[in-house]
From TrEMBL:
Pfam families: An_peroxidase
Protein name (record): Peroxidase
Main location (coarse class): secreted
Gene: Dwil\GK27005
Molecular function as annotated in GO: heme binding; metal ion binding; peroxidase activity
Source organism (scientific name): Drosophila willistoni (Fruit fly)
Keywords: Heme, Iron, Membrane, Metal-binding, Oxidoreductase, Peroxidase, Secreted, Signal, Transmembrane, Transmembrane helix
Localization: Secreted
Binding site for heme b: H548
GO cellular component, one term: extracellular region
Length: 831
């Protein structure tokens, strides 16, 4: 094509025609008055300059790309792309749908002596540990627990520890102090930076309890405790009562058990961090509702339950009592400065905090913490994660759970008549209104959480009754187990289909393999026996506590949504009594569905940072509450959770080892607040750093939380041999059954099991969607009328033994012991 810049003629027009160009293309013409040789020379010079320029640009680009990739750590150790490239869509290939490998366990720092560690030396160490436990128990005999209904007591009740966990904690305490004794005698000193004593020889304490597991790996149903899920690790992978998994090695001040401290000076008080960085804000995120936080807490309680240190009889420990007596060795109170703007009016210098219970590991090594819950999304929050608790909750009639039937015919949870449970109040019990029992001791912590417990308990009975009508020949055991299996699958489906896409964004959820396979029932089997689904310590004590920033100060409790009516958050804590009223559950659930959440950022409501578990005039205790943010930060330090930069490195994100690098991860205003109280980036708590990151596109939080959360939920999916989408094995659902479960939504569960909700948003965790989120009649929701027909063929289910388990025998050593077993006996040490 010709245009005005293309010369078309020669000759008299002042152009000189060059000899014909031999080859394809037109003859080249040049303006007249310049010799061809001079012109060719200048052209060559121009071409040379242009070539050199292009080469320089290419080399510079390659250097920048190399430097950028190095700074990002764009590949994992196995060569797979980094998490960062996935989340920003800068990778040329999809990330393998595999979890990040955990940091390798540190080698025993006393390795040179471990091979020669004599039987006598090991016995001496264990004896020192037993003596430390005995001294502690003598000390506890004179202690007074926190007064009932005080904020400290309610906090203790919200972290309830069961008797089995208390036994294991005593064993963990002995192991920790045995490690202290070995380290002292061998002159172990922690090296600068993040370093710990590592894992040493095994400790076999006297008379360990041996539990015989009837592991039938072809069983259709789960064990309540989560055991027998993995053939190679039947007692540990995902089971309850095991230590949390470490994504990265711990960072204890002494390398063994003392809470994390600064490597460069002194860590600021957790309360100071809360005041300076996590102060109050009132910016809501109108796209999402409080139901997101409510379901998130309910689901979190299904997979995490950190065991708290208690006295020998399970009573609370008061670390802030005014006394000249020595403090309890497990106290780690939060320091409150004299100029604290809130607590100074109450003349308080201490916020009660008791360390999490140490978990037994059977080895010399650093302190671990105990998870009382199973790691699987199995509905154990409804049924309990111990066989005894599950048995107590069952009615043993037609597969149903026990319920309390009100005079007007409504089903409520079984009542708790314990006056010292931190929830029941004399004024309410006189009216015949009590708190409740459920599969999890934390069910009464707040009204909305209790409502969620009631909702799912009712749903179990709905499923059991539907199965009975479809299969009248089924006995109670089969009805219960099948209803439990369906409920767990529906909880998992809501988590991966509705909850995680909001947290992570649908694109990242799909890339990481976290979305259900409802569009393709023929996808490969999900299970990978090499994946350890056990909950990570950093997930339970830091990352998944992000939801506390979602909580608003006021909740919309208007009954008809026409006249504004609000309730403060702290008045909903340990206050489930409105559920006794007609439509009480409806009003609670609609309140969660109609109240927008706060933004996920570093700011928190004053209801969370000042009024947690606040007392009332009826309680006759101090009315000031606790600071949840301070408690979260203190818990991370208690667990030896390393600092923010460590986890950025582990997730292959751009480093934040210097203030200049951190400026690329958080905004300047936030960075200034952090620099004011932290001496070094290496001191910044991961909870603070992760919440300070701006959200990624399509997600509600930043890249580090996205990495930590997605990795854990990927492990839960891949490492569960009873995962609801499995394609092979007796645990699987049929295609027809799976298709029915894929219709599940939280909206449908609410509609079906509430007292009288008839209209609801299709997506109750969200307010606004690009493709709409309209109110619909409950009967129009897919899955509202659950189709039991795919479960009608009773021949596919073998006859069950009691609790659905066969008699294939596996011996597993459990580290719980009674008091008398620690008194004396032989001790063996093995490598």
């Amino acid at each position: 094509m010709a245009d005005e810049t293309t010369p078309l003629a020669a000759g008299n027009s002042g152009y000189v025609l060059l000899p014909p160009y031999q080859g394809p293309g037109p003859d080249y013409v040049f303006p007249g008055g310049v010799s061809p040789r001079s012109r060719r020379s200048k052209i060559k010079q121009l071409q040379c300059c242009m070539g050199i320029t292009i080469v320089v640009i290419v080399i510079a680009a390659l250097c920048l790309a190399l430097a950028f990739s190095n700074s990002l750590g764009n590949a994992n150790e196995d060569g797979s792309p980094s998490f960062f490239f996935v989340t920003t869509n800068e990778t040329l290939e999809p990330t393998p749908k595999k979890p990040l490998p955990d940091e390798p366990e540190a080698e025993w720092a006393l390795k040179s002596r471990s091979e020669t560690l004599s039987r006598q030396e090991g016995a001496q160490a264990v004896s020192a540990g037993i003596k430390a436990l005995g001294d502690r128990e003598i000390f506890e005999e004179g202690l007074r627990p926190s007064a009932v209904n005080t904020p400290a007591f309610r906090h203790y009740r919200s972290l309830s520890t069961n008797p089995e966990a208390r036994k294991l904690a005593r064993r963990g305490y002995v192991e920790n102090h045995a490690t202290f004794d070995i380290a002292k005698r061998f002159n172990y000193t922690k090296n600068p930076g993040r370093d710990n004593i590592g894992w040493g020889p095994r400790i076999v304490l006297p008379d360990p309890t041996v539990l015989r597991l009837d592991c039938d790996f072809n069983s259709r149903y789960r064990r309540p405790t989560g055991v027998c899920n993995n053939r190679e690790h039947p007692r540990t992978y995902g089971a309850s009562m095991v230590p949390y998994r470490r994504m990265v090695s711990p960072d204890y001040e002494d390398g063994i058990a003392s809470p994390r401290a600064s490597h460069y000076g002194r860590l600021p008080s957790a309360r100071q961090v809360s005041l300076n960085i996590h102060r109050s804000s009132y910016e809501t995120d109108s796209n999402f509702t409080v139901m997101l936080a409510v379901f998130g807490q309910f689901m979190d309680h299904d997979i995490t339950a950190t065991s708290l240190t208690t006295s020998q009889e399970g009573e609370s420990i008061d670390c802030c009592v005014e006394s000249t007596r020595e403090q309890h060795p497990e106290c780690f109170a939060v320091e409150i400065l004299p100029d604290d703007p809130y607590y100074k009016q109450y003349n308080l210098s201490c916020m009660n905090f008791v360390r999490s219970a140490p978990a037994p590991t059977g080895r010399f090594g650093p302190r671990m913490q105990l998870n009382q819950a199973t790691a699987f999304l199995d509905g154990s929050v409804v049924y309990g994660n111990l066989e005894q608790r599950q048995s107590q909750l069952r009615s043993y009639a037609n597969g149903t759970l026990r319920m309390y039937l009100t005079d007007d015919g409504r089903e409520l949870l079984p009542i708790s008549s314990n006056p010292d449970d931190g929830c029941n109040r004399v004024q309410m019990t006189r009216q015949g209104k009590y708190c409740f029992e459920s599969g999890d001791d934390r069910a009464n912590e707040n009204l909305l959480l209790t409502s969620m417990h009631l909702l799912w308990a009712r749903h179990h009975n709905y499923l059991a009754r539907g199965l009975q009508k479809t299969n009248p020949e089924w006995d109670d055991e089969r009805l219960f187990q099948e209803a439990r299996k369906i409920l767990g699958a529906q909880m998992a489906h809501i988590t991966y289909n509705e909850f995680l896409p909001v947290l992570l964004g649908r694109n990242l959820s799909e890339t990481k393999g976290l979305l259900p396979s409802s569009h393709n029932l023929d996808e490969p089997d999900t299970y990978d026996p090499e994946v350890n689904p056990t909950i990570a310590n950093c997930f339970a004590s830091a990352a998944f506590r992000f939801a506390h920033t979602l909580l608003p100060g006021l909740f919309n409790v208007s009954r008809d949504n026409s006249t504004p009516e609000a309730m403060e958050l702290h008045k909903m804590l340990f206050n489930p009594f409105s559920l006794w009223k007609e439509h009480g559950i409806d009003h609670a659930l609609l309140s969660a569905a109609n109240t927008p959440v706060m933004q996920v950022d570093r700011f928190f409501s004053l209801e969370v940072t000042q009024k947690l578990f606040q007392g009332t005039a009826e309680d006759k205790v101090p009315v000031c509450g606790l600071d949840l943010v301070s408690l979260n930060i203190q818990r991370g330090r208690d667990h030896g959770i390393p600092s923010y930069p460590v986890f950025r490195h582990h997730c292959r994100l751009p480093p934040v080892d210097t203030w200049e690098q951190m400026a690329q991860a958080v905004d300047n205003y936030t960075l200034d607040s952090i620099k004011q109280i932290y001496t070094s980036p290496q001191d910044v708590d991961v909870y603070t750093g992760a919440l300070s990151e701006p959200p990624m596109e399509g997600a509600i939080f930043g890249p580090l939380l996205s990495c930590m959360v997605s990795d854990q939920f990927l492990r839960i999916k891949l490492g569960d041999s009873h995962w609801y989408e499995r394609k092979i094995g007796p645990q699987r659902f049929t295609k027809g059954q799976l298709a029915e479960i894929y219709k599940t939504s939280l909206a449908a569960i609410i509609c079906r099991n509430s007292d009288g909700i008839t209209r609801i948003r299709e997506h109750v965790m969200e307010r606004h969607r690009m493709n709409g989120n309209r109110y619909v009649n409950c009967h129009d929701l897919p899955g509202y009328d659950f189709d039991f027909a795919p479960w009608a063929d009773a021949k596919q289910y073998p006859k069950l033994h009691k609790a659905g388990f066969s008699r294939s025998m596996t011996l597993v050593r459990v580290m719980g012991v009674e008091n008398r077993s620690l008194d004396n006996g032989n001790v063996t040490i093995s490598n």
